[in-house]
Batch of 3 targets.
Target 1
Amino acid sequence: MSSHSEFLWYIPNDIKAGHRGDAAGENHNSLDTLTTQAKALEEHGWKGALIGTGWGRPDTFTIATALVARTTSFEPLIAVRPGYWKPANFASAAATLDHLSGGRVRVNVVSGPDHLAAYGDQEGDQVQRYARTKEFMRLIRRLWTEEDVTFHGEHFQVASSTVAPRLVPAGNRLHPKLYFGGASEAAERVAATEADVQLFWGEPLDGVRQRIEHLKALSKTLDRDLQPLEFGLRITTLVRDTTEQAWADAEAKVAKMAEGAAGSWQDHRHGVAVGQQRLLDLARQGDVLDDNLYTAPGKFGGGGAGTTWLVGSAADVARSLRKYEELGITHFVLSDTPYLTEIKRQGSQLLPLLLP
């Protein structure tokens, strides 16, 4: 793989263990448990980890701050929602953590459904939702890179706003990278003009190829005024010593999910987003697509990054990830449960095949 690809993991900030047949331990979400995972990531070659968001979970930014304080190189990819945060509050919090951590902050802006009324927020239709997200992203970038910012948008306003501390540019990094997901037309228009990195879920290679081409074309049409858009893959990777063992374990996990023993990702969601529906529809094409993309989990409660899994030996999974990289993916956010076991296993077996 080329030297500029980056490999991150996923750290749960959810009281429930997840949707891959992993039973939650008693201290599943304690600072010690999560710190152990973050330190294991540092020791096993990972760049950092995505920390998810959603009402009814512990606060994502607080967890990221605690983990940054207990680590030295771990980079949190902090999922945040417009509306839960106002742009200036978020820009200041992120600039502060970026300053304290020596430039380790990454941000994933999420626009999917949430229990908005619970924290006093409201949204209109999808068009309005993404218009607000676009304003949020544009404004926080301005607050990070300009001083004395005045902005009067439809959704957000600031006057004479200068965020402290000021971010210190490092090479071509002017501010924390803004990651973004979403497959609807409204989402793609936001990604094309505002995002630094567009994250895809685990679609087959053809689907990812088409979406990359479409987003590159959109970036030109919409006169993107930022660095070229980068692309990432957020997917479950089930790795074992042999191909046979991996498939045996994958099928056993799905059987457990089919019994309803694993909990459902749908427990805390409302409605199904376009990108999620694309993944669920894949199962109609077959249980295994490309070389080793397993779609069956989506039929039995697997959602989000757990809808499709890349299954196999380290060599099998590395070969598949390389094919995504050949399409232009440079950011990989992998995970499997139990988290700590897999951070170590995949860090030891898979990453050496992928990192220079």
Target 2
Amino acid sequence: MVRNPYFDNAKYLAIVLVAVAHAWEPIMEGSRATRALYMAVYTFHMPAFVIISGYFSRGFTARPEQLRRLVSGVVVPYLVFEVAYTLYRRWADDAPWQAFSLTDPIYLTWFLVALFLWRLSTPLWRALRYPLPVAVLIAALASLTPGIGQDLDLQRVLQFLPFFVLGLSLREEHFRMVRRRAVRVLAVPVLVGAAALAYAVAPSLRMGWFYRSTSAQELDAAWWAGPVATVVLGACALVLTAAFLALVPARRTWFTVLGAGSICGYLLHGFAAKAVPYWGLDATYGVLLTPWGRVGLTVVAAVGVTLLCTPPVRRALRWVVEPPLEWAFRRPDARCPADAAAPVTVPAQAAVSRR
């Protein structure tokens, strides 16, 4: 399957934004500018990932080969890194009480649970006449429903669902539209304006709205604020995602090859990001809380996640993120028409921020 350099570029740039935002998280208090940038990035970086994931899930029909790929590329990495991050927190954060749980995703592993559930539901969304309005309604209802609980991080799964469904509805020409010259020209002032707006509201707006992991009531807001936030933040996310995608180069660049390894960068960078709060590095090294310290940490995060996306790291982690599981599944039976007729090509795995 020929890879499209545009999407590899988008995935790499998006994972850099994820890593940088995670690096800002423990050091942004006391810096209105850092908090504003964090808020602006959080508005669209995960929606962009989810939209791309939905786009590459359009062909998912639950064929046997696709289910095997779903297990090897999503379920296995989730199980491995759920255990790894639990052990890491027990050790680095001196938190022996941190329980192992298959249903309560820790930190960034929530995205793998969400991707698994979204992709399994793809045939349903493809069958509906008006899938996007239905998904928005579900997200709005979730935002005003406290007590969904931590199981499978369903609050976040449901609130991000519209972006996945939107990705399922997109075609290649839609991405060509956002790369038109007029859109690219507008993208820069849109992103700058978003940063300025974030700076204006940074002191008063709670970040919980952007994480989409809690209901309105749990954020001490009126119940109706949940659906309103779903629509308003969703619209902002779409505008900023379009601006981001407009600026992504369509040609092959030096970082195009890194897009294929963005899943490695996503899963591994969290260990470095969590080292700062777990080990109290921000308190020990006060320089991290200075402007130059924040800039330095930003550069380190961007360079670090870039290295984690390189082909050698991808090859080293293949046993986790792309394990060969032929031994675990029955071979397609020639006597079974469903298996015999199933094509062997599958859509490319779209790689994927706060717990």
Target 3
Amino acid sequence: MPLASRLCTRWFSLGLAALVATGCATSTAPVAPVTPVMSGAPTAAAPVRVKVFVAAMFEIGQNTGDRAGEFQHWYERYWKGATPVTVPGALQPVYCNADGVCGAVLGMGKVNSSSSMQAILLNPKFDFSQAYYVISGVAGTPPQRGTIGEVNWATWLVDYDLGHRWAPEENKAGEPTFMPRKGYEEYRRFQLNPALVGWAMKLSADTPLKDSDSARKYRLRYPDAAARRAPFVGTGTHMTGDTFFHGPGMSKQAQYIAKLYGADDYVITEMEAAAITLVIKRTHGTERVMSLRGAVNFDQGNPSESTLAHLDPAPGETAGGFAETVENIALVGTRVVDHIVGHWPQWQGGVPKP
């Protein structure tokens, strides 16, 4: 048999398409194309269809069995025994359960948390096309508007930075020392879906919250009625900044920025939510984003305490209630997560009408 005929005969076994591509002549007799047999070939696993993703910023030790940080109560509720999924570019692995609830520790600060979130969102092991997000962690609050142990759903997320600042002594007395920088209008503040915030409050506002004797005692150092309240579930603007700002002056500036941008009253200071939300917005939009924070400190000292003393307190002078607050966050947040997952046919297409 001529060489060309032998080659065409061999190529024919690969199918009719290969014959056409190589230009081999065929006989006039019709021959059915042969389908290659892929015996034993590996198949890619279908991506996890994420219904709710819970983002925490840090954990103190292990995910279970020791002192709880921001992730442990969530982990023990949804992922105890789950196989960790390593994601290149993310700080910690992702955990998922059979109901489509996933979560991870993203890291503290804007860059740390947002880079982890982006790596997870872009990883092909997950399908986030219909996912809801709960950005969860501890925070500070001004004593005029919040208290230790409270849990707060964000109505707005505002970036504390992205502008110009100067020293107070370089300005007229009492005037603001912050000016927004042009060009950041699209990502210096986000209004979260009011319908979703409404659902979150409807489902969680009456959650019984934990408290501690140490927190009760600490609150009495402040004359403000809000500071002396027992823990509650509320809403308001969350201020995102990489700086742990302290003192009445910085607190006043945060409120000034919130009002400058048309947001609600500033009630929570934290370090990640606006940055994480920007990443989510660029991939899937913000209609399904929630930010949930628990207050573990006030953003300023009491009237008889200097800002430096508040920033670096002596032993025994810190606010109590950390353990209770991280538990409160999960108590409140799981009510919403469980409802969404338990009523998925009503939620998968978008936030239902109340």
